[in-house]
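Notes, Module 5: Reading structure tokens.

Key idea: the token line is not a picture. It is a compressed description, and you learn to read it the same way you learned to read a sequence, by spotting repeated patterns. We will look at two proteins. The first is printed below with its tokens.
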Amino acid sequence: MPTLAPAARTEGNAQLPVARTVADLRARVAAWRREGQTVALVPTMGALHEGHLTLVRQAKERAGRVVASLFVNPTQFAPHEDFDRYPRDEAGDAAKLASAGCDLLYAPSVGEMYPEGFATSIAVGGPSEGLCGAFRPHMFGGVAVVVTKLFLQALPDVALFGEKDYQQLMVIRRFTRDLDIPVQVVGVPTVREPDGLALSSRNAYLTADERARAPELNRALAEAAAALTAGAEAAEVIERAQARIAAAGFGNIDYVELRDAESLEPVARVERPARLLAAAWLGKARLIDNLPVAAG
């Protein structure tokens, strides 16, 4: 069996084994399989917070062993975006994962994930269209490739993703079904600060003043979702929500939209489960959020 990298240094006595190559990851997973274990995967880009750790804890409830991947994926960042400054702290992340009960950290290099000559892409239509797909057209192709690779590298029974990135979750479910990848994709409700702000690694970009304003995005969506459930027309409700977000000091509002909860097709009135989604800029941070909207 290939030798795993030294265990990551973590706080206290817990140590988390680290695999840095596909061969090492597969060897560890194969050993678990021989023991009769099921395997869960929690893909991350690091800079972990309580939302990620909630995924790990729920993964422990669904499988005997949990792998968390840590890889800042360059193919989902455009040249002008924040790939270089995206927060990175592998040692701190490993300590958090160990405390949450993770069994293995998979932390491959860019060269391991995208070896020289890599030339494959995956185009996903349907749920990738509009919303963040309109403002970050490169993103979901990069997500599709890296998540497909992680699925094939780890061969998990189940993979868990946060609902904060709801469109991403729907895209992953779509290509997983379309490509017959035998992985159960589970969405986990968004974890929030006490004031309602969705936890995100990019919240670190907020200044103190911006952090105080940031929860208004969620409050505007909550007010709008209540009105939509009561039967209001989407256009009027969305206009009010955009005005409230702008009044809170947000800059560009990329979108506030009502979509079908499964297909992500636009809807004008809530007649079946829907999702209200928004993305807006506050300083250097692009914040996204979403809420379920039940039919009244």
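Here is the second protein, with the sequence above and the tokens below, as before.
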Amino acid sequence: MLDEDLARIRAHRNNIHRYRRLLRTKLSELERQFIERRLAEEQVVLKSLAAETFPVAFAMPNDSAGSEGVGAEP
């Protein structure tokens, strides 16, 4: 499962790089609009897939007072 997710992430990342390269070339306005739309779609899918594949497994504490003495000796 993880290998498949990583392969999908890699494919979307490669598509994003390809679309960015294409945007640096001479394009008609219609082509540019299409590529910009596809780029935005790929970025949304990549962000979603990355969040599913690598969920945050911890939460930061709400109380920052405990971090004042970190590393200090009593």
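Summary for the second protein:
- Residues 63 and 69 are 13 Å apart (CA to CA).
- The chain has a mean pLDDT of 85.
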